[in-house]
């Protein structure tokens, strides 16, 4: 009984101490969750348009997959960033225009989700953010909600927040192409492709809570 009470007290204390006052969410380059400073920074999918060929090259660094950081027990402000709370998230991947792209008049560059992989039963989402210190302009609306979902790109650097609700390995693949105002691909243009890869690892505090839960379960069975 005493051990049982100690476990409950310790878990409660840990839950209290891991919470904090409302804070601004970290900028995209600082959403690395593995604690290795060298792995911080932005990881761009560099998009170029040479004639009728769209090419996408993803930076080699930070290394793939990037690690999601934990938003559990944190209160982010303003309210639109609540989607990062009680989840793992990362915004290091970003779209970057390489060179000057001049699609035909009335057309633009579009990005389409083509596939996603994730642990069974998990939730994997993407929220529209942006670049630099313009957080007030970010919508944080969900985008790329399912395969085939489109997003029209204005050619500016774009970093979105990818979130997951449980540990594991995640990925999302995209097709980048030139399309008309409705997102229909233009004939004669070749599309590019990229895959963003993530891993979510429980933070130490989460692991301790899980151990406490297992210990409590074991005591109840005695």
Nearest-integer average pLDDT: 86
Proportion in helices: 10-25%
Bin the strand percentage: 35-45%
Rounded to the nearest angstrom, the distance between the terminal CA atoms is: 11 Å
Largest sheet: 12 strands, mixed
Order of helices and strands, N to C? HEEEEEEEEEEEEH
Number of separate strands: 12
Number of helices: 2
**Rg calc:** 21 Å
Helix vs. strand class: alpha+beta
Description of the structure:
The protein is globular, with a radius of gyration of 21 Å. It is α+β, with helices and mostly antiparallel strands and 222 residues long. Strands 1, 2, 3, 4, 5, 6, 7, 8, 9, 10, 11 and 12 form a twelve-stranded mixed beta sheet that branches. Strand 1 and strand 2 form a beta hairpin. It has helices at residues 2-17, 204-221, and strands at 43-50, 53-58, 66-70, 88-90, 93-97, 108-117, 124-130, 142-143, 150-153, 158-164, 168-179, 192-200. The protein contains two helices and twelve strands, in the order H-E-E-E-E-E-E-E-E-E-E-E-E-H. Helix 1 (2-17) runs antiparallel to helix 2 (204-221). 15% of the residues lie in helices and 35% in strands.
Key descriptive features of the protein:
single chain; 222 residues; alpha+beta; twelve-stranded mixed β-sheet; 12 strands; 15% helix; globular; disordered N terminus; disordered C terminus
Put the structure in a nutshell.
It is built from two helices and twelve strands; from the N terminus they run αββββββββββββα. With 222 residues, it is an alpha+beta fold.
Question: Mind sketching the topology for me?
Answer:
Blueprint lengths: L1 H16 L25 E8 L2 E6 L7 E5 L17 E3 L2 E5 L10 E10 L6 E7 L11 E2 L6 E4 L4 E7 L3 E12 L12 E9 L3 H18 L1
Helix pairs in contact: 1-2
